Give the backbone structure.
Amino acid sequence: MNREMPTMMGWEITRRCNLTCPHCYSAATRKALNELTTRECLDIVGTLNEMGIKMVGWTGGEPLLREDLEEIIHEARRFGMKQGITTNGVLLDEERGKSLKKAGVTAMQVSIDGTTAERNRPMRNATDEEFEKALEAVRVSVRLGFKTSLAMMIGQENLDDAPRFIRMAKKMKVHVVRFSGFVPHGRGKGQRSRLEFTTRLGELKAFVSQFTGYEKMPIAFDPGFGPLPPYYEFHQCIAGKQMFYLSCIGDVYPCTSLLSKEFIVGNVRQRSLIDIWNDPNMTKMADFPRDKIQGACRTCRYMPVCHGACRGASYAHTGDLYASFPACLRTVRIKKNPAMLVKSRASKKSR
């Protein structure tokens, strides 16, 4: 029996990447996989139109490595879909930016994990030149009128750089700053000792508390951080109900947070996308019995609004869908740290 169709989807158009970020969630590679062909992608876009998809987020790998990207985007635009790209920015120059805008892209997220080449290098394995190209990509995006987001993955190793990142974003006049919490998935499984929060959770809570609801610039924290202070509300899971994720080889997942092979519902090369969408396994995580979660969540007074946080992130950290979210900020005290304050001494003197 058919059910309500999704409104948005994430599409890993390629898993190839020109960088090798140690924390990469998708374990992107420089080698081409058995990726969906241009024809297959165009056919899928037609199916998305039948399903009523309104928004497509193009991800990777590095999406700009697909030479047919504009052709596929143009087809989606023909059906009125809004489209945004997540990129590391290295390949986004003025010419490519204009090409993408003409094809139908309206939003651009550039991911940089440090405010200097030195800070960015260990987080992204990027050269100084690649760092400068990424910064220029942000300027290009703003200049061409894309809704521009500047994104940073925060782990224990680079937390102190986050306030400077906000100052940099304001100076570059981006529209949104997005912070991603470290989730040990893909290549990130090997970076737990570097990036997973242990002794610095109090500092993380102080930072998140300061900038949740920040009025001077929209600042977004993704599900990897869990429920945010002060109210610890967390959205109802929409995995497989309002959205889904499509990999470059055709695997369909309920959500971008559920990328382990056990969450694959089907493959578009073997079954129709609509048939996969109607598979009961698609909504298993959205309908997950949250009252069965074990540990600290069971007795927490915020459970009715928190819902036990993102099950995908919890699973990546613990390997157990029934485990409590291990890095919950509610459980720690704020530790004051002058380095976590966004206002510099100079800005205080100027007031």
The CA atoms of residues 90 and 130 lie 6 Å apart. The radius of gyration is 20 Å. The beta strands are 8-12, 55-59, 82-87, 107-111, 147-154, 176-181, 219-221, 243-246, 251-253, 266-267. Residues 344-351 have pLDDT under 50 and may be disordered.
